[in-house]
Specification:
Elements lengths: L1 E7 H10 L5 H6 L3 E7 L2 E11 H14 L4 H9 L3
Antiparallel strand pairs: 1-3, 2-3
Helix pairs in contact: 3-4
Length: about 80
């Protein structure tokens, strides 16, 4: 099953800085697209990452250890599959 994780670009960037460049998580996160999104009457960049459920769970586990601020975005995508 594939799901879509969306998060603000700054949050995505901060999580990426915490991920090892040669890790599976980094490889998965590199596939994200960056899109403008209208928020509060201005455009903000949002990342969209399409991944499998097991990959999202791995990213959630990683975020819980290195950057907990990203947890709600990843958890929301996982919860959407239930």
């Amino acid at each position: 099953m594939r799901l879509l994780i969306t998060m603000p670009l700054d949050r995505y960037d901060r999580l990426m800085w915490k991920v090892g460049k040669f890790s599976r998580a980094y490889e998965i996160m590199q596939n994200a697209s960056i899109e403008p999104c209208l928020s509060d009457n201005h455009f903000a960049h949002t990342t969209k990452l399409l991944c499998r459920l097991d990959e999202a769970k791995m990213l959630l586990n990683l975020a819980s250890r290195v950057y907990p601020t990203a947890i709600p975005d990843i958890a929301r995508a996982i919860d959407s599959t239930k």
